[in-house]
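Re: that chain you flagged

S.,

Sorry for the slow reply, it's been a week of failed gels. I finally had a moment to sit down with the sequence you sent. For the record, here it is as I used it:
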Amino acid sequence: MNNMDVMKSNLNKAMIKNQRKAIFISAIILWVPLTGFLIYSTQRPLVSTMFYHANIQFRAGNEDSYDDIFRNSLEHILDMYADHPQWKWTLECQGLLLEMAYYDYHDIFIKIQLQNQRGQLELICPQYSHALALAYPYKDFAESIAYNFDLVENFLNLSISNVMLLQEGQWLPAFPMIKHLGIDTMMVSRDQLSYQNYYPNKPVLEYSYEGISAHVIPINMLPTFEGGVYHHNIIFSDSERANTGGLDNPTPGIDFEFNPEKQANLLAKHEELERKGNIWMSMSDWRNYCIERGDVETMDRFMPESHWIPENNQNIRWMSWGIGETQDSIMLARNYYTRQRIQIGQVMLERAYSYLTPSQRSQYEDQLLAALKHLWMAEVTDTTGLAPRNYEFVYGINHTRDAQTIVNDVIQDLRDLVPNWTNQIQVDTYQRKVLTEAIDFTNSSTLESPVTVDNLAQKYGFGFSVEYLHDDLHPYNISFTNHSMTVRLQDSTHNFTFEKIYMDFTGPYGFLVDNTQPTLPLLGSENFTACNLERSSQYIRFHDNWENIHYTPSLADNYTVGLTRSDYTNKAMIGDDFYTVPLPICNGLIYNDEQGYAIITNNTVGHIAVTWEEGQVFYYEKETIYNAHYEFILYRGPLEQAHLLASLINTYPILEVK
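Prediction finished late last night. Pasting the structure tokens below so you have them in one place:
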């Protein structure tokens, strides 16, 4: 019998046993007709699932924390389950953790491998690094998944679940686009579903995007009756916190000190469940069990990307809300710039193959993979949003620096090796070409006609406003300019005329971290007197009728989806006039259906989410400490052309290599 057959047999036995109990008791207590039913309803089988979130980048950049996570937490959890092979469990982690275990903690790796290979331990491990997937296009996520599956399954000899859970519970509505890579199910908390006015009745949902079908598992935080059983998650949080820390051992400087009392409580919880006849399932077991029972319904509501357990400003918590020693627009823009440089190197290597020896090809492929791995590590969620420490910000800066150094060396080598590449060239990452003739180049120019805020208001019909917290930290170097761009794609020429709004804001540190800066210097507080020793913030608003919009969901680079704002206002929310729908705009695009124009952020200048309301869209950053700059491209024209322009600016640009 396979594992599913064994579980079905155990469930059937438990149900029959409980049913007999109910019939026996109800036969005795004849004067209460419903007693049998009531007792049976409370004697349903217990089924547990769990997923420990083990994150080696929990304190990204703190080398000591890596050893603490492995030795003080994960090893003890592995040992507990090793003593009880009948207890199935799920570990959600990144490929980086498994790779580090293999090389640096091989005894722990062997424990992982043993439990995984015998079917006890399910590994939910889609990405190489716990990246902020909703902030970037398909390429970043898909390449990370493809590499990670190859690393974990072919090199480390482990099996990865086809169920996906992303760090902090990110939801990606276009996730079926990566089904061919080995993932066909995504987990999402019911809190996120209810935040979007969606309340499914079944434990598994059938879902499709652009004709590709997949499944969604809504996760309950609390135990619930579903699938004919009493289902609960034992662990739904950071594994590092499950058996470390606490008031009993507050050793300074140790984030994850082993707490034997916590570990004992965790063990006791499992043992008590076992005494009650609990049936242990992995997340994929649970999905398969519910599908076989027919406990599935169609997910008929589109939910935009979301992050973590929803709250007001929930996406912006990771894409505009600095809080710690970082600044989201800077880190995300630097990552975006780095991904564009890597794309240039990849396209140039493809086009240079015939000029290279096999050893040269292999060398440059390895170098570009190394650059990608640095980028994936820089894209980790822990460098943005939820109170990152300075060393976590430096971690992101250092990994993007290393990625850029590697790819710039590859680009220079290829230019030296290939004829006609030593002069000015353009790399077309959209069509994956290297252009050497000026006649084929994409031409961009700044037009002479002056542009003012009044001109923009007259052309586009919106009201434009800028707000900031402290008068002395006002925007400077603000400009409104008119531009044109001509690009030839296949056999057609596309002409774009658009406007740019560019502005800089001074931060309390009076310092700008740019896209290529190699290190983060020690900073003073040059402007803290100008802001009363407080942090800064800024809001850039476009007032108009924004009831109906289009945008591009993350992972769905070639598609747009139309949304109506009133569909996403939950009347149960307190103060629903301010009910927040933030969109990550991975390609920078939001399109106003009523007025027929687009606002496109240049994501290499400043990459932040847009907050969508009926009467405005606005971009803001809170708790900033560094200088900040933003660029908005305004384009009036058809949606298809606006989408193409956003792709050419951000996702797959055509860039000059001097």
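What I noticed first: The CA atoms of residues 236 and 487 lie 50 Å apart.

Talk soon,
D.
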